[in-house]
Design brief:
Elements: H1 4-19, H2 32-44, H3 46-53, H4 58-72, H5 76-84, H6 95-114, H7 127-144, E1 151-156, E2 160-164, E3 172-176, H8 179-186, E4 196-199
Parallel strand pairs: 1-3
Antiparallel strand pairs: 1-2, 3-4
Organism: Kocuria flava
InterPro entries: CHP03085, DinB/YfiT-like, Maleyloyr_isom
Protein name: TIGR03085 family protein
């Protein structure tokens, strides 16, 4: 089976090269350079991610700041190269771990760049790719949708349904779409996800 995370990583790197470092993304406040730095840190510097999460810790916070500055200052081609090829010691170099860690990450961020561009268009995914994303959505739905006050039912024809939301309002919202689109919706890209919504 093809490693969908690897495929999305390559496609995202190619797109980053085309758009350049200052293009918009769907991640609020982030340009493509900010997104690339995030991905490089995630793949190769978990210690820096901890420092970003806890900047008040002197050593970790300062290390995170310096590392992020040095990555941000890299020439664009070198930074994209680091997105495309994680370091040898990265778990992303191991196919099964890469699939588990990065399938959703790289799909969502690829779409964050694609769908922020004015000329973006739908792209069909293979059935196996949709199946991978559906499996991830089934695992993540409760967490991703936990803050919604309504009851939510996400239906992907041919794949199944998942439920989420708090259900406090008595309203049941039904979302229908491909697994990829429902996943984007659940990850907060609601105004760009191709889903049909109804209330029951």
């Amino acid at each position: 089976m093809t490693n969908f995370a690897h495929v999305e990583r390559r496609h995202l790197a190619a797109l980053l090269r085309r758009t350049g470092p200052d293009a918009p993304t769907l991640c609020e406040g982030w340009t493509t350079r900010d997104l690339a730095v995030h991905l490089v840190l995630r793949d190769g510097r978990p210690d820096v991610l901890a420092g970003r999460a806890l900047p008040q810790l002197p050593v970790l916070g300062e290390r995170a700041r310096r590392t992020e500055e040095s990555l941000t200052g890299l020439p664009w081609d070198r930074l994209v190269q680091k997105v495309e090829r994680p370091p040898l010691y990265s778990p992303a170099r191991l196919g099964p771990l890469d699939r588990r860690m990065n399938t959703v990450e790289f799909f969502v961020h690829h779409e964050d760049v694609r769908r922020a561009q004015p000329e973006w268009h739908d792209r069909p995914l293979l059935h196996d790719e949709e199946q991978d994303l559906w499996g991830s959505l089934r695992l993540l739905a409760k967490v991703l949708l936990k803050d919604d006050e309504d009851a939510l039912v996400l239906i992907a024809p041919g794949f199944g349904a998942v439920r989420g939301g708090r259900g406090r309002t008595g309203t049941v919202r039904v979302l229908r779409g491909a697994p990829s689109e429902l996943l984007l919706w659940a990850f907060g890209r609601r105004d760009r996800a191709r889903v049909e919504e109804s209330v029951e």
